[in-house]
């Protein structure tokens, strides 16, 4: 991986901001992801992220911390003990430069021997398991990292609206798709392109069913303006 996300985040942190990240999926056209948005404060966060910040408690694991904006708020404003992890070396470096006290280059699936009261998976954090067939292993891993009474706060979107409707009002989903929320995700930055990664948007009902099958209770905390939502998972 070229770590284009990390390169872009580090560029912004170092004052070398000249262009935004470009993203595209197998079912959507290219779009810009403005770098300043990754450095937003609490007041600039959407309602779903603000609610997640408000609900966070105890020792927190921020999975896929990116530029560290959520972790910095929890560390500096709520004075929580936060471990921030990401698989992007550039993001980890930039987050440390921004003042995160405990940030680590780490894949959550390989994290061992630590427990948390809150696990955060924001900016479609539920999608990082890539494919629906991997959701059970992903959720079971998160369970091993939770203290008794702990919670997982994750957001995602139901992207069924992106598909055409038939005359009966149903959605026309291609038959070669295992699950309509699975996409190939492309990132481009400054003339370079990453190989596509497996990514997933998971609707709440599918997440809730997977959660129940793997020993979690699920709660729909908040729905956003565009098919997005915040869910809380707790151990059953």
From TrEMBL:
<dbReference type="GO" id="GO:0032259">
    <property type="term" value="P:methylation"/>
</dbReference>
<dbReference type="InterPro" id="IPR029063">
    <property type="entry name" value="SAM-dependent_MTases_sf"/>
</dbReference>
<keyword id="KW-0489">Methyltransferase</keyword>
<dbReference type="InterPro" id="IPR025714">
    <property type="entry name" value="Methyltranfer_dom"/>
</dbReference>
<dbReference type="GO" id="GO:0008168">
    <property type="term" value="F:methyltransferase activity"/>
</dbReference>
<feature type="domain" description="Methyltransferase">
    <location>
        <begin position="56"/>
        <end position="158"/>
    </location>
</feature>
<keyword id="KW-0808">Transferase</keyword>
<protein>
    <submittedName>
        <fullName>Class I SAM-dependent methyltransferase</fullName>
    </submittedName>
</protein>
<dbReference type="Pfam" id="PF13847">
    <property type="entry name" value="Methyltransf_31"/>
</dbReference>
């Amino acid at each position: 991986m070229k770590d284009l996300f990390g390169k872009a985040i580090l560029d912004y942190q170092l004052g070398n901001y000249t262009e935004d990240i470009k993203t595209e999926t197998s079912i959507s056209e290219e779009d810009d992801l403005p770098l300043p948005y990754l450095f937003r404060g609490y007041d600039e966060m959407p309602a779903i992220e603000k609610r997640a910040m408000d609900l966070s408690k105890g020792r927190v694991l921020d999975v896929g911390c990116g530029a560290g904006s959520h972790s910095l708020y929890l560390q500096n404003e709520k004075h929580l003990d936060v471990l921030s992890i990401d698989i992007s070396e550039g993001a980890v470096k930039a987050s440390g430069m921004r003042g995160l006290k405990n940030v680590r280059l780490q894949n959550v699936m390989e994290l061992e021997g630590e427990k948390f009261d809150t696990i955060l998976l924001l900016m479609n954090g539920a999608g990082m398991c890539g494919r629906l067939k991997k959701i059970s292993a992903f959720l079971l891993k998160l369970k091993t990292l939770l203290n008794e009474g702990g919670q997982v706060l994750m957001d995602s979107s139901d992207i069924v609206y992106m598909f055409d409707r038939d005359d009966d009002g149903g959605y026309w989903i291609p038959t070669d798709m295992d699950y309509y929320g699975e996409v190939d995700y492309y990132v481009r930055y400054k003339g370079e392109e990453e190989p596509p990664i497996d990514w997933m948007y998971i609707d709440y009902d599918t997440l809730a069913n997977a959660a129940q099958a793997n020993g979690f209770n699920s709660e729909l905390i908040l729905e956003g303006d565009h098919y997005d939502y915040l869910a809380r998972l707790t151990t059953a």
